[in-house]
User: Fold these one by one.
Assistant:
Number 1:
Amino acid sequence: MQYKAVMAWGVPDWTGIQRLREISQPTLILHGDTDIVIPTAASHTLAGLIPNAKVTMYPDASHGSVFQYAPETDKKTVAFLSD
């Protein structure tokens, strides 16, 4: 199911992409800079489309970056939710 969703994301759905601009909640995007499943550029594109989005890019981290950087992810998430 997740694989299908990721693959479908690669096919532009312009209506869905435009709807990202309607997200009013602050958004935290966490990504590894060597993720081979979802290109790094996609996180920056996503952050550019969602108002108030913040990107944290973990160096030398793959698709499981939040696990590779668990303590840092915890601190970043708690700080983000506290704001």
Number 2:
Amino acid sequence: MTREVWPSIRDQYLDCLLTADYIGGPAVGAFEREWAAYCGADHAVGVAHGTDALQLALTALGIGPGADVVVPASTFIATAAAVVRAGATPRFADVSEATLLLTPQTLAAAITPRTRAAIVVHLYGQVPDMVSLQKVADDAGILIIEDAAQAHGAEWAGRRAGSWGAAACFSFYPGKNLGAFGDAGAVVTSQAEVAERVRALANHGRSRGTSHDEHELVGTNSRLDTLQAIVLSGKLACLESWTQRRIAAAGLYRRLLQGAPVDLLDVMPSTRHVYHLFVIRVSERARIRAELRRLGIQTGLHYPVPCHQQPPLRGYAERPLPAAESAAAEVLSLPLFPHMTDAQVETVCGTLIRALRHSPRSSPGMAHSRPAHSWMK
């Protein structure tokens, strides 16, 4: 993908390198405006990475010590860690067995009298039922924050990820659907005061329009650098075509694996799933994964330990969460990237089906398969 984008950003990127104009400037502002518009929101603030985006959004919304924040147990640890870093308390909720997403019922069950917000994770590229989740939140008087790190361009009922909550948090880690050349992130919101507070917090507590030496808040250093903004603007022009390729590859996966002894996660009718990952559930996962690896096909685990069972977070877990726990033992991420060919998808599916049906000693004959590193991008 870098080769595809490089011609369009080469001059601006090299000019930035040679002039040493690395922090702030027009390129950062341009990407922020482009990204806000893409998400259907009024404001975007570039930050250092997605984890900071979550913490900064919580702090900007006044959520800290004394507050509970609902977090689904099926997520990357950064979602809950950001709550702890903000001084609040994560309260873990279970997820749907069919989608591994937060539901109105599991959200309602996790709300306490101290709950101030819920972080809704758009896991693997699918937005959950935001209309129903927002109703539960409104009835409880709490805020919704979107963790959209895996959902660039995903939608519910025609509205993009980033346009639903009081704030939405994105990661542009290189492996994301829209990835930088390193770490980068953004907070998206349609509340001007939230955007300005995030911007100040991310810039050592400085507010726009004040002296460089005035610090109105105790902030941190979490700015999107100019080089990353240039890369992200260049890649954003390709994001929709890359997303359509992901959707097409996922559709072929679903057709070829229909009837195979694996469970496919449901795709809800009102969602536009952008397939950051293509995740299946399979028993004997370790054996299947080892067999695929032996045949040159790399897979991933997202995530083999539920968030509430991670050692530093166990103290916040109040009860078993059976759907998240059972899924963690079975999830397996198959190769998926925008330039994946139909032939590669067919090879993965054929090899997977043979591995499911045969013993580990069988040899399906994969002399034509590519080496493992070429599959997972």
Number 3:
Amino acid sequence: MATDPQLYQAILNRRSVRRYQPDYLDATTLETVREQLVQAQPLVAQNQLRVLLRDVVAGEDLVAAMGTYGRVLSPPHFLLPSLLGKQRPLVDLGFRMQQLVVRLTVQDLGCCYIGTLGREAAIRARFSLIADAHIGAFLIFGRPATGGGQLINSVVRQVYGSAGRLPVEKLFFKESFENPAEPPKALAALTEAARHAPSALNVQPWRFLWRKGVLYIFTNADNPKYGKDPAQLYRFFDVGICMGNLAMAMEALSIPGKWHVYEGREPEIPPYPSTLLPIAKLEL
């Protein structure tokens, strides 16, 4: 089966971009961006995705809508995807959005997430979203600026704690959570893609258990770095982003597999510590 090295490399190369060329993208590119998000693989087919794509108007106060982390230089466009559904909506939303993020990177476009949790009511009102719409983040995107942009992006990543990644032995376990381990060679490329997933404040809440040919993904039940509720809900959005990186790596490497998303405490889930919550399993 054919592989796509460019797609896999985009997963590893993607960085949060905070400084953009102010020029708008052409209409054809914008329509492609919209279609790529709408056509992204879902985790839960019944969940309904809605996409708001806007140009940033000169003088528009993005901080008022996106908070202080929304300070971005010369952003030309933003997306506000929302999801209607009851089964793991934030996980599914992060999963779909990260697929788009990787495809934007392939097209040499830059982007950055601006989280929305804790401000959902105000954002729904501002953008006329229905009350049941689940939102996890804005996505700023456009052509990255040249020159000093890399320095600005690096400083922002350091300030918000997104400059380092946990080693794989802190994320991956084999057969039980009492056995931290290096992943087998067959999984090494997938777990490396997972390690490169972005997360709010670089919490990296995902943990993996490899057991009897199945890869289970869990998230922290609580992490003080997120802050108080509702910010703790970022763990679900972030683990969805991580699963999106895994899905794109599987596509790039032509690795077949099927996700099963957990709704509760299904009996077949392996034992796990109380500090974790089961999210899904990947049958390869």
Number 4:
Amino acid sequence: MARDNVALWHHVSRARLTMRPFGDAFLEDYLAREGETVLSCVGGYRYEGPGAQLFEQVEGDYFTVLGLPLLPVLAALRAQGILIS
């Protein structure tokens, strides 16, 4: 978060996703169901949808996997008085 070219807040969040073993039939079915949608998703999967089936383990924050560590962002906005505490 920045204001007037001054950094007010930054955050680094990591998530580790371990893909599960799957066969060609599963992958072909997944790609057929998701269609062009996977091309607009980071990593080629929608973790919030059928893409969750690609993984056997996920470590880290759900929102980080989606691309925005929402809870830390909300906390920073409250700390700045942008959101009501």
